[in-house]
């Protein structure tokens, strides 16, 4: 299992943040070079990470190393645009957005020193995903499984279902009770689902 660590965070905090999905995806495709080819690769992304995983999958396909599956969690389809401008808000506005999503530790939201450190990073993420525009007709050939909470303010069920337009392979939609961070209470179920989908690399049809 490989985890992507974005620039500007943790052990990469000295590096400048990347503010476009496309550039970040290109960097990830390059970094994955030694890991793809003769080894099957599946991609999982949550929220902005789902959009990013889609663009990484497209980049890998262009290089002839398509992933065997894409799992997109907590995100509407790339072609479903909303005119959100969270990245243009002041710091209080960004904190309010984090509170709405209910996935950020309240101790962080109440610590002004920590907030000063993380808000620029969060703002960069919002800028990347809010300014992203999906190429018309963009698709991947690998199966896509979409995971979403039934009360996610960032992705309605229909917006999540629209991921089906972005694959020529199989499509599956799984809906869980919860909001944007439904994963916190359904981790075991999601892990079991992914394991089942990847067994023998034979995703569901339909």
Automatic annotation (TrEMBL):
Signal peptide: none annotated. It holds the Pfam family Thioesterase. One of its GO terms (biological process) is lipid biosynthetic process. Residues 1-198 form the Thioesterase TesA-like domain. Keywords: Hydrolase. SUPFAM superfamilies: alpha/beta-Hydrolases. It comes from the Bacteria. GO terms for molecular function: hydrolase activity. Belongs to the thioesterase family. This is Surfactin synthase thioesterase subunit. It comes from Umezawaea tangerina.
């Amino acid at each position: 299992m490989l985890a992507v660590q974005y620039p500007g965070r943790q052990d990469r905090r000295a590096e400048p943040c990347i503010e476009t999905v496309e550039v970040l995806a290109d960097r990830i495709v390059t970094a994955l070079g030694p890991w793809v080819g003769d080894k099957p690769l599946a991609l999982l992304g949550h929220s902005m990470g789902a959009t990013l995983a889609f663009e990484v999958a497209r980049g890998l396909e262009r290089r002839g190393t398509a992933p065997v599956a894409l799992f997109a969690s907590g995100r509407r389809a790339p072609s479903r645009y909303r005119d959100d401008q969270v990245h243009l808000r002041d710091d209080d506005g960004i904190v309010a957005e984090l509170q709405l999503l209910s996935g950020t530790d309240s101790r962080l939201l109440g610590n002004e020193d920590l907030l000063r450190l993380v808000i620029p990073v969060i703002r960069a993420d919002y800028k990347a995903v809010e300014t992203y525009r999906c190429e018309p007709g963009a698709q991947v050939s690998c199966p896509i499984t979409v995971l979403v909470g039934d009360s996610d303010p960032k992705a309605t069920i229909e917006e999540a279902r629209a991921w089906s337009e972005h694959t020529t392979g199989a499509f599956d939609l799984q809906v869980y009770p919860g909001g944007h961070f439904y994963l916190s209470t359904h981790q075991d179920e999601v892990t079991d689902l992914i394991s089942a989908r990847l067994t023998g690399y034979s995703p569901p049809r339909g």
